[in-house]
Design a protein that fits this description.
Order of helices and strands: HEHEHHHHHHEHHEE
Strand content: 5-15%
Largest sheet: 3 strands, antiparallel
Structural class: mainly alpha
InterPro entries: Apaf_helical (IPR042197), P-loop_NTPase (IPR027417), WH-like_DNA-bd_sf (IPR036388)
Distance between the termini: 44 Å
Keywords: Plant defense
Protein name: Probable disease resistance protein At5g66910
Number of strands: 5
Helix content: 40-55%
Amino acid sequence: GLRELLEELTEHGPILLVLDDVWQGSEFFLRKFQIDLPGYKTLVTSRSDFSSLWSTYHLKPLKDEDARSLLIQWASPPHHISVDDEYEDLLQKILKRCNGFPLVIEVVGISLRGKALYLWKGQVESWSEGETILSNPTVLQRLQPSFNALQPHLKECFLVMGSFLEDQKIWASLIIDICVELFGRGSSSSTNVYMKYLNDLASQNLLKLVPLGTNEHEDGFYSELLVTQHDILR
């Protein structure tokens, strides 16, 4: 039925079918949309990597200008602002906390929509006093499912990342050594097992692996990898 519908629709022009927020484990479902038709393309957005099915483009955090536009779109400027410089200063402080993360910008922007300037100031000052973006329950609700869906051994590795300071580039070998020491089951291949776990987390965009050398496919290549993580995820 799907193929017949697409054939009928493509008679009237090209079609782009968008499947939004597809979760890990949906490969069998996605294969049903791999239909060879002229003028038909499929775009999948996901927190996971489906590179075995299609070519993959990893979205980066928003650049400053785009992040600012998105925040203004969701928040709308507070009414009766007499000092534009003050408003711009608040925008920049909020954007710094959001780190170019579209989902967080959306949630924070909606929470400030239509609010008076003093409430914008209060939000920014609360962050300075130790409150975090994740104190907003809506942000936490939107991010928590990504963690809940992890298998127990991946949760262990993910939580190890919280042992490091923000904005760190960490040697993959160091993280693997910590995981082997804390969670290793005595297997001689533990280092390779935990390297696989790091790759699994990277495929779900919960951390990023940055290669330093060119020997990525040789044994022990994890010694030439750095691991980074978005501050919000940390």
